[in-house]
Each structure stands twice: as structure tokens, then as C-alpha cells.
Design a protein that fits this description.
Order of helices and strands: EEEEEEH
Shape: flat
Radius of gyration: 12 Å
Strand order of the largest sheet: 1-2-3-4
Largest sheet: 4 strands, antiparallel
Number of helices: 1
Oligomer: single chain
Helix content: 10-25%
Number of strands: 6
């Protein structure tokens, strides 16, 4: 799956495990995290914006 990239970082959603890279520095990322299919992702750019992963992945299975 193609990563979603911004000047703040990049995110890849594969097998319901979002991989998030943040804080780009010198061609690499200072922060890297892989999240399980449950839990919450919090935006580093939009204050107060969070996404419940269970809700996204359950909704995607309905289509």
C-alpha cells in the first residue's frame, strides 16, 4: 500500500497495522511506531484529533 506523506511525516496502513513515521530529520524520521489493529492514533498536526482504529477497520470490512 502506498504511504500517505506530508511534511510532518508519513503513514502506511497494511494489514490493519498503521505504521507512522514522524519528525523528519536529515532524510530519516526521529519517531517510528507500528500500531496494532486496535487503539487510537493521535494527530501531531491537528490538536485534539484522534482516530479509533477499531472503528476504521470494522467500517472498511463492510464495503
Amino acid at each position: 500500500m502506498k504511504p500517505r506523506t506530508s511534511k510532518h511525516g508519513t503513514a502506511t496502513f497494511a494489514e490493519h497495522q498503521p505504521e507512522v513515521h514522524r519528525q523528519p530529520q536529515g532524510g530519516q524520521f526521529a519517531e517510528h511506531a507500528v500500531h496494532g489493529p486496535s487503539g487510537t492514533l493521535t494527530s501531531a498536526v491537528v490538536p485534539g484529533f484522534t482516530v479509533e482504529l477499531d472503528r476504521i477497520f470494522v467500517a472498511s470490512q463492510k464495503f
